[in-house]
Design brief:
Largest interface: A-B, 61 and 59 residues
Strand order of the largest sheet of chain A: 1-2-4-3
Oligomer: heterodimer
CATH architecture of the largest domain in chain A: Sandwich
Shape of chain B: rod-shaped
Number of strands of chain B: 4
Structural class of chain A: alpha+beta
Number of strands of chain A: 4
CATH class of the largest domain in chain A: Mainly Beta
CATH architecture of the largest domain in chain B: 2-Layer Sandwich
CATH class of the largest domain in chain B: Alpha Beta
Number of domains of chain A: 2
Order of helices and strands of chain A: HHEEEE
CATH topology of the largest domain in chain A: Immunoglobulin-like
Strand order of the largest sheet of chain B: 1-2-4-3
Strand content of chain B: 15-25%
Chain lengths: ~200, ~170
């Protein structure tokens, strides 16, 4: 009987194990590697956390850049509008002040007849602006015997500063008109201040 | 012996490589991420400042009310100012027969800023005429006004002379 014998391949160890240890690390190096390992792990964890934060911050930054662009445009528009509005408001206020400061004779003219009684006759009425005071001067012809009591109420929007009677000027008296012997002339002078 | 030295060098290099790998995340965080974070936070802060400025401006702009109406009023005032002259007053009064004004005279001073107006009007129409004139020429400054009865018709007419300053 023929027996088969399996031939195992012959392994030729081309690079045999060294007989002596090539390098032997000191035992404490083990702790160094453990430390390096721990530090690497914690560094990676930190990096991960910081990266997540950084990504959120990046999104905020992108959003902020869009907002900055829009807001800058709106600020420029608002500033232009504000400047224009301020100029319009300033002009308007100036006009209203000038309009208010200007003498409007209507109120005073409506008020003057209330100063003159039926027995009196007005000859010359002078309305004069003196700074912020308006002077009204009325040359009146009135009966000598009449004891007049003046209405001292100021017209609307004015305050009465003073009210006196003076001798009228020659130019205020009627020209070529004979004065009634029972009458006398007087000039009523009133000063009004706009409120 | 040579083999041993090579192994030692390889070990040192390996340790250095491991050390650099260990340090790398910390370095990335401190030298790359942090500066960017500071820069981006500055951008976000700038955005917040701009938004605050915009809100303040918006609030300031809201303080001005009825601006279109005021603008229109200003144009009207401007037109009124520019159109005020003694000639235009004369033509305004002369073109309206209801005022019944006679001898309307104007004289402009040398400075072209002030002038005198004199006319004779009926008692009944005088008040309305003066009111209309002052409503139409709102920036005409009345310095003085003297009213006297007309010697020829003392019961019907009044002579008015006014000193005015043009706007």
């Amino acid at each position: 009987m023929k027996t088969f014998t399996k031939k195992l391949p012959v392994i030729t160890d081309l690079q045999p194990e060294p007989q002596d240890v090539v390098l032997r690390l000191p035992p404490w190096m083990k702790y160094l590697f453990i430390l390096l390992y721990i530090v690497t792990l914690s560094g990676m964890a930190l990096l991960l956390r910081e990266s997540i934060d950084e990504f959120e911050l990046y999104q905020e930054r992108v959003q902020a850049e869009h907002i900055i662009a829009d807001t800058t445009r709106q600020i420029n528009a608002l500033q232009a509008r504000l400047t224009e509005d301020q100029a319009i408001q300033k002009d308007y206020d100036n006009y209203k002040i000038r309009q208010k400061q200007n003498t409007r004779p209507g109120v005073i003219l409506n008020w003057i007849p209330s100063l003159i009684s039926k027995l009196e006759r007005a000859h010359t009425i002078t309305v004069e602006q003196k700074g912020d005071v308006t002077e009204v001067r009325i040359a009146l012809e009135k009966p000598i015997a009449e004891n007049t009591s003046r209405i001292t109420n100021a017209p609307p929007g004015y305050a009465l500063v003073s009210s006196i009677e003076e001798t009228p000027q020659y130019s205020e008296l009627p020209q070529g008109q004979k004065a009634n012997p029972n009458n006398e002339f007087t000039a009523l002078v009133l000063q009004l201040k706009k409120q | 012996m040579n083999t041993n030295i090579r192994a030692q060098i390889a070990a040192i290099l390996g340790i250095l490589l491991l050390a650099s790998i260990t340090v790398a995340p910390w370095m990335v965080e401190s030298h790359w991420l942090k500066p960017r974070e500071v820069k981006w936070k500055a951008i976000i802060k700038h955005k917040d400042a701009l938004v605050a400025t915009e809100l303040a401006l918006d609030k300031a702009a809201m303080a001005y009310q009825n601006i279109p109406e005021k603008k229109e009023a200003n144009q009207s005032f401007q037109h009124n100012r520019e159109s005020t002259s003694l000639d235009s007053i004369q033509s305004y009064v002369g073109s309206n027969p209801k005022y019944m004004v006679f001898n309307f005279k104007t004289s402009l001073a040398q400075d072209n800023k002030s002038g005198k107006i004199s006319f004779t009007a009926s008692y009944n129409a005088l008040g309305q005429m003066l009111t209309d004139v002052w409503n139409n020429y709102q920036f005409l400054v009345l310095n003085s006004m003297i009213m006297k009865p007309n010697p020829n018709h003392p019961e019907e007419e009044v002579m008015v002379s006014a000193s005015v300053t043009l706007p």
